[in-house]
């Protein structure tokens, strides 16, 4: 492709609203342009990289036995109402009405559509297992779109769905897709980890997220420093054994703590450590109120709370609601003498506290010398806190460390969550009706492109891996008006294309500095500069990744180009 014939609008300045490297460089190098908040156009270079990511995805999905189809982005509300997600998905679901007042959603995902399709077409176990996938634009009305393609309102996703007659078949498909995903992200050159995850609004269990390691990631990965254990911080269980201090229990006492609401304020005022305080928070779990207790230096993990109760909704009670239920404001809450209508649940660490501190459920008062085994009634103890760095690894090997990650893929064992709700059933080998068992597997295709850009760059611009680069070779004649330079550039351009290489030739009437700066920004793996020695058939070859420079004759380049590209 001749550069004068395509659209590559590079920018010299970093856009003011671009916070992370991938967003900055994809804008500056002319790969994308923003249309509105969280909505982007893929320009020619961006589209070419996107197609290469999609090609890798298709190859690995096909190898895993999945078959491609395409479903509508515009989805009937009735389908979402069948699964009940119309009411629970939240404001991220983009809803609209047609001219006849029928309700629709712009699909953020396709569980409902694929389930309705398969239930109408497959009635026997003999037609299963079956795995179908698509690559399509999705829509989510994100409250705060940010980081360019990493969190948008419109994005490109590969979503796959598998259907099975039994659990063993689902387990087999899950493992195949897990391997396929690992292959996809490895072929994209990414530094990633597969981590244990929560299924969230998708439902189901036994899920893994594929996380690209990056300081700009919005997710925290808890991993072992001595094994391959890795989990989203929300899902990492705490296996710490808490030893109770061998200290005599003192008499419970209520004292005045005017204006002391936070753990920090209370601990300083009473001259105790935060770990000897009990943090009490009132949650609404589905339709009931639950008082949750953790140690003062720990934080409540609401995902663990949600999973303990198998709840669909978990949220902190509003301050007014808290005062109405417990008779005091947040900061004075505690588990002693709580109304029987409020269930109390505590983290294991709380049970080991001796002579601790908690709120008295009375404004500006706290109890001291609190001993849970003596003073708490009908409290259930379980793992409720976030894991911390330095905690024992849940697999028993090493200790936990933290890293930031960008989620690029997620695999779920959905089970019968959707097939039961939407009556997608088959007749088994005994002629009995049973719901299909489902799996779900998603990859953020446009997010993967951004994740690659986040990991493959330097101070001068992007530095694409060869198999994802928009072009493999960038031919730059320094002066197009010089016949020797333009002629040799054209000769090399034609020769490389004939050999099957993807070539971009900068035939613009621009200064050399502009051409070289743009070339570094774009990040094509091999740059061939045709300059003053063109009349002698000599050119300069520069490798974008390493900066390595070679001066070669035109007769040598053809034989060495494949080696430079690692082909």
List the helices and strands and how they pair.
Elements: H1 21-28, E1 32-36, E2 39-42, H2 44-63, E3 67-68, E4 74-76, H3 77-83, H4 85-88, E5 94-97, E6 103-106, H5 111-121, E7 130-139, E8 154-164, H6 167-187, E9 192-197, E10 205-213, E11 219-224, E12 230-232, E13 253-256, H7 263-270, E14 278-285, E15 288-295, H8 302-309, E16 314-316, H9 319-326, E17 343-347, H10 348-351, E18 356-359, E19 365-370, H11 372-375, E20 379-382, E21 400-415, H12 417-421, E22 425-427, E23 433-435, E24 437-444, H13 445-455, E25 457-458, E26 461-462, E27 473-477, H14 483-498, E28 503-505, H15 512-522, E29 526-530, E30 538-543, E31 549-553, H16 554-564
How would you describe the overall organization of this protein?
This protein is α+β, with helices and mostly antiparallel strands and 567 residues long. It has three domains: 15-237 and 402-453, 2-Layer Sandwich (BirA Bifunctional Protein, domain 2); 253-382, YbaK protein; 471-564, Anticodon-binding domain (Rossmann fold, 3-Layer(aba) Sandwich), CATH 3.40.50. The chain is built from 16 helices and 31 strands. Strands 3, 7, 8, 9, 10, 11, 12, 21 and 24 form a nine-stranded mixed sheet that branches. A five-stranded mixed sheet has the order 16-14-15-17-20. The longest helix has 21 residues, at 167-187. The chain is globular, with a radius of gyration of 29 Å. The relative contact order is 0.14. The model has no long low-confidence stretch (mean pLDDT 95). One of its GO terms (cellular component) is cytosol. Belongs to the class-II aminoacyl-tRNA synthetase family. ProS type 1 subfamily. It holds the Pfam family HGTP_anticodon.
């Amino acid at each position: 492709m001749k550069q004068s014939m395509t659209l590559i609008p590079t920018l010299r300045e970093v856009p003011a609203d671009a916070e992370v490297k991938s967003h900055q460089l994809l804008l500056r190098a002319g790969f994308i342009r923003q249309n509105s908040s969280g909505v982007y156009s893929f320009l020619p270079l961006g589209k070419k990289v996107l197609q290469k990511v999609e090609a890798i995805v298709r190859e690995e999905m096909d190898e895993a036995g999945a078959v491609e189809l395409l479903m509508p982005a515009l989805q009937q509300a009735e389908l979402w109402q069948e699964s009940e997600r119309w009411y629970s998905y939240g404001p991220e679901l983009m809803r609209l009405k047609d001219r006849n007042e029928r309700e629709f959603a712009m699909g953020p995902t396709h569980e409902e559509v694929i389930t309705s399709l398969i239930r109408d077409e497959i009635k026997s176990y003999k037609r299963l297992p079956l795995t179908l996938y698509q690559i399509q634009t999705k829509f989510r009305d994100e409250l705060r779109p940010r980081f360019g393609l990493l969190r948008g309102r419109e994005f490109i996703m590969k979503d796959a769905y598998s259907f099975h007659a039994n659990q063993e078949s689902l387990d087999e498909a899950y493992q195949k897709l897990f391997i396929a995903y690992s292959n996809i992200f490895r072929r994209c050159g990414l530094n990633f980890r597969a981590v244990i995850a929560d299924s969230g609004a998708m439902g189901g269990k036994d899920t893994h997220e594929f996380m690209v390691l990056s300081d700009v990631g919005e997710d925290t990965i808890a991993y072992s420093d001595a094994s391959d254990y890795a989990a989203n911080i929300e899902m990492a269980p705490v296996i710490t054994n808490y030893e109770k201090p061998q200290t005599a229990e003192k008499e419970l006492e209520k004292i005045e703590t005017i204006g002391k609401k936070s753990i920090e304020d209370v601990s300083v005022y009473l001259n105790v450590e935060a770990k000897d305080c009990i943090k009490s928070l009132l949650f609404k779990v589905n339709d009931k109120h639950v008082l949750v207790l953790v140690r003062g230096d720990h934080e409540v993990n609401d995902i663990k709370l949600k999973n303990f109760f198998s709840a669909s909704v978990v949220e902190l009670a509003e301050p007014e609601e808290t005062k109405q239920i417990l008779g005091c404001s947040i900061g004075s809450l505690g588990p002693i003498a709580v109304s029987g209508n409020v269930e109390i649940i505590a983290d294991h660490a709380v049970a080991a506290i001796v002579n601790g501190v908690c709120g008295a459920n009375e404004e500006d008062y706290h109890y001291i010398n609190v001993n849970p085994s003596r003073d708490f009634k009908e409290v259930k103890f379980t793992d409720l806190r976030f894991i911390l760095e330095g905690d024992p690894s849940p697999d028993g090997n090493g200790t936990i460390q933290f890293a930031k990650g960008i989620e690029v893929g997620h695999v779920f064992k959905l089970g019968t969550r959707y097939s039961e709700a939407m009556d997608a059933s088959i007749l088994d080998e005994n002629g009995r009706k049973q719901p299909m068992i489902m799996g779900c597997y998603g990859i953020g295709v446009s997010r993967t492109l951004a994740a690659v850009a986040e990991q493959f760059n330097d101070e001068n611009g992007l530095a694409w891996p060869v198999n994802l680069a928009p072009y493999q070779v960038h031919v730059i004649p320094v002066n197009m008006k010089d016949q020797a330079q333009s002629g040799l550039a054209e000769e090399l351009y034609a020769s490389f294309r004939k050999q099957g290489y993807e070539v971009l030739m900068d035939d613009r009437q621009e200064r050399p500095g502009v051409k070289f700066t743009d070339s570094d920004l774009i990040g094509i793996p091999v740059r061939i500069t045709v300059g003053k020695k063109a009349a002698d058939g000599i050119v300069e070859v520069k490798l974008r990744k390493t900066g390595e420079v070679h001066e070669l004759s035109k007769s040598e380049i053809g034989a060495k180009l494949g080696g430079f590209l690692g082909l």
